[in-house]
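Hi U.,

Before I forget, here's the chain from the pilot set. I'm dumping it here mostly so it's searchable later in email.
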Amino acid sequence: MTQEAIGKFIAKCREEQKLTQGALGDKLGVNGKKVAAWEEGHAMPNMELFEPLCRVLDINVSELLAAKKLKDADKVERGEKAASAVFAAKFQVMILSIISIALIVVGVVMAIVLPTFMPLPGNKVVGYIACALVAAFGIVFRVFLGKITQRLEKE
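Structure:
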């Protein structure tokens, strides 16, 4: 849905609740000019405000993003789709997490086994650097996935 349509929907819901832009802003901890910018389609509320905004306007996030009131069947369908998307994302993160662990293990094993296959001292240094890079990439990848996992668990 477009930003303008969502803004008009926010205005309509605000008016149904008999709130001014300033009063809505006060309830959300923002000023009335920010609410006006949303309603005029010049800006969108921050994602952190979606839930409180919806609670004040007596709507749900699906309705806010669709910019219209939804029937119960539509709410259930949208909720199921969102849940499916979260589960799919969690599964993909789990697979990527396994790959990151494999990269770390491969880097460490290569560093242990490498000296037997690299007879020249100069080659060993290059080999160790390559192993360290593989392991480091795995570690960085793992940390990044951990942050994504934390975000997904909040949903």
